Amino acid sequence: MAAASLSQLSFLSNPSPRSLFVPSLRPTTPFRRIHGDGSRFRCSAGQTGFFTRLGRLLKEKAKSDVEKVFSGFSKTRDNLAVIDELLLYWNLAETDRVLDELEEALLVSDFGPRITIKIVDSLRDDILAGKLKSGSEIKEALKKNVLELLKGKGSKTDLQLGFRKPAVIMIVGVNGGGKTTSLGKLAFRLKNEGAKILMAAGDTFRAAASDQLEIWADRTGCEIVVAEKENAKASSVLSQAVKRGKEGGFDIVLCDTSGRLHTNYSLMEELIACKKAVAKVIPGAPNEILQVLDGTTGLNMLPQAREFNDVVGITGLILTKLDGSARGGCVVSVVDELGIPVKFVGVGEGLEDLQPFDPEAFVDAIFS
Ligand SMILES: Nc1nc2c(ncn2[C@@H]2O[C@H](COP(=O)(O)OP(=O)(O)OP(=O)(O)O)[C@@H](O)[C@H]2O)c(=O)[nH]1
Ligand SMILES: [Mg+2]
């Protein structure tokens, strides 16, 4: 093992000496550092391919969490259950009526008109060509169509964290979509896989926003950097946090940001400033800019996602609140329309309710 990594190991085995953060740094910096319980993480420093391994572990976890995915999508599944009834009594003479109703069921679940027509037309062609001869074959073809779409257009579902530490993940989106909650849940997951996480309270608009993130830091045992004074610039909080992440041997810095309407020009500009500030500290960062989209808004999320993508370049999506929504089809529409992969889905408010997105598990969950 290289000398550098050995020294990191010894640092990590004596985690978080308080003197590293306070009070000596206080006078020179406007930021306050709050300690979570830094004593529980496993050491990961100096391992080649750590981020690749992390991505893979999360993926494997997605497969083993199928139960959770299934319960999260129960309302979508109820909505789509009508397809089973339709196909149970399907016969060739009734193909048009059955496909019309199937089309309706997909639209109600927010598959979106474009993708719905594509799927139904493809099924019709295969039925007329004699390739699909029973209800169950049609159902399998339907699942296959959806899966191919998800895999073709949104295949990079695992986190791409590069190779330089710390990796930086920015969470962005409109107000109330679930950014802070998703960040907390993501921290929990990554920390459980052995990563050393630093949170950055980049939502400087509301005092309550950093309090909310501090609660997540406590809950997950992560450290956090918050602005010490009011009206601090989000970009400087993020910049300080990433510097701290670098100095402190953190694996990943998770940056929260304020909710903003995609139509608000100056707030979108601020997001660009945040991105630049982070890149100034670590070239190539942020590694991921994840946009949180509220699943209950259905297809209204599409213009939001387009605008954020145009302004800062979205690398992945987190679709939240799919537990409360019967509109799980929006996952498919978003991938089809934007070609941006869904990386996580939020299926509840608890710590474990952020699931890495696995296309197979998703398709099984909604069409079971
Ligand atoms: N049911 C459910 N609720 C969620 C999910 N994700 C977030 N929420 C809830 O949605 C509400 C808003 O979540 P926040 O994390 O504060 O959203 P935000 O995007 O950070 O909001 P702003 O910072 O105000 O823009 C909270 O009540 C969360 O508990 C989810 O996957 N399922
Ligand atoms: Mg928030």
| Ligand catalogue | guanosine-5'-triphosphate, magnesium ion
Terminal CA distance reads 48 Å
CATH topology of the domain at 58-69 and 155-367: Rossmann fold
Stretches where pLDDT is under 50 for at least 5 consecutive residues are: 1-32, 35-47
Number of helices: 14
Residue-averaged pLDDT, rounded?
Answer: 83
In CATH, what is the homologous superfamily of the domain at 58-69 and 155-367? P-loop containing nucleotide triphosphate hydrolases
Question: Any idea what the shape is?
Answer: elongated
Count of individual beta strands = 9
Sketch the topology as an H/E string, one letter per element. Answer: HEHHHHHHEHEHEHEHEHEHEEH
Please tell me how large the radius of gyration is.
22 Å
Q: Tell me the major beta sheet.
A: 9 strands, mixed
Structural class by SSE content: alpha/beta
The oligomeric status of these chains comes to single chain
The strand order across the widest sheet is 1-4-3-5-2-6-7-8-9
Strand content: 5-15%
| Percentage of residues in helical conformation | 40-55%
Provide the descriptors you would attach to this structure in a database record.
368 residues, alpha/beta, 14 helices, disordered N terminus, binds guanosine-5'-triphosphate, binds magnesium ion, receptor, Signal_recog_particl_SRP54_hlx, SRP/SRP_N, SRP54-type proteins GTP-binding domain-containing protein
Structure overview:
It contains 14 helices and 9 strands. It is of the alpha/beta class. Residues 1-32 and 35-47 have low confidence and may be disordered. It has helices at 3-13, 50-64, 66-72, 74-88, 95-108, 113-128, 135-153, 179-192, 207-220, 234-247, 265-281, 301-312, 330-338, 359-366; strands spanning 31-34, 167-172, 197-202, 223-227, 252-257, 288-294, 316-320, 342-346, 354-356. It has a domain at 58-69 and 155-367: Rossmann fold, CATH 3.40.50.300. Strand 3, helix 9 and strand 4 form a beta-alpha-beta unit. It has a 9-stranded mixed beta sheet, sandwiched between helices. The N and C termini lie far apart (48 Å). Helix 7 packs antiparallel against helix 14, helix 8 packs parallel to helix 9 (207-220) and helix 10 runs parallel beside helix 11 (265-281). It binds guanosine-5'-triphosphate and magnesium ion (MG). Residues 173, 175-181, 203, 209, 259, 292, 320-321, 323-324, 346-349, 353 line the site of guanosine-5'-triphosphate.
